[in-house]
Specification:
heterodimer; A: 113 residues; 7-stranded mixed β-sheet; 0% helix; B: 110 residues; 6-stranded mixed β-sheet; 11 strands
Chain lengths: 113, 110
């Protein structure tokens, strides 16, 4: 009964491949996010969805495409993976369209070889 | 956009001592300031937050202070314990955006 769950936990792949990360929350929250944490631990927002609608789309290459089939799910698809995409990707959720009191998933460690 | 600076980047203290982590922000419209703790290999977790209409908030050994005029806020941990060792992130929220600081690695030596 994990609040925010994301899969897979580890993802090792070759440059040029396409991969997806899935995220689900069972908290009944309206808003979900994708954050990227680089090797220096810096946390940066990538996308935010409120009730399946995109509300934040930071400067992220268009190789990254989020998809929200319903408000409990926010998946991240990445095309043509590059070495610089290696990072930990965290899904998060919050209630009421606000960014307050984020609940993070356990993270996906992506390694691009 | 908002810019959040966090200092120090690493902090080492003896068990039982106090630890202070400081953050500054640039956007005067920011009105929400949370602190997250991330243990090694784990997810960030909210430990305390404060709104701009409050100057100080305390929860057991943890306290946060906010100076809106100077645009800075701080996390204070008293009587540190080894389990306090982690990376701590401050953040500032304005509009629909939350911007994180660069993190502070706190090491509590037994």
């Amino acid at each position: 009964d994990t609040a925010v769950s994301q899969t897979p936990k580890y993802l090792v792949t070759q440059m040029g491949n396409d991969k997806s990360i899935k995220c689900e929350q069972n908290l009944g929250h309206d808003t979900m996010y994708w954050y990227k944490q680089d090797s220096k631990k810096f946390l940066k927002i990538m996308f935010s969805y409120n009730n399946k609608e995109l509300i934040i789309n930071e400067t992220v290459p268009n190789r990254f495409s989020p998809k929200s089939p319903d408000k409990a799910h926010l998946n991240l698809h990445i095309n043509s993976l590059e070495l610089g995409d290696s990072a930990v990707y965290f899904c998060a959720s919050s209630r009421d369209g606000a960014y307050e009191k984020l609940f993070f998933g356990s993270g996906t460690q992506l390694s691009v070889l | 956009g908002e810019n959040v600076e966090q200092h120090p980047s690493t902090l080492s203290v003896q068990e039982g001592d106090s630890a202070v982590i400081k953050c500054t922000y640039s956007d005067s419209a920011s009105n929400y300031f949370p602190w997250y703790k991330q243990e090694l290999g784990k997810r960030p977790q909210l430990i305390i937050d404060i709104r701009s209409n409050v100057g100080e908030k305390k929860d057991q050994r943890i306290a946060v202070t906010l100076n809106k005029t100077a645009k800075h806020f701080s996390l204070h941990i008293t009587e540190t314990q080894p389990e306090d060792s982690a990376v701590y992130f401050c953040a500032a929220g304005a509009g629909n955006m939350l911007t994180f600081g660069g993190g502070t690695r706190l090491m509590v030596k037994p």
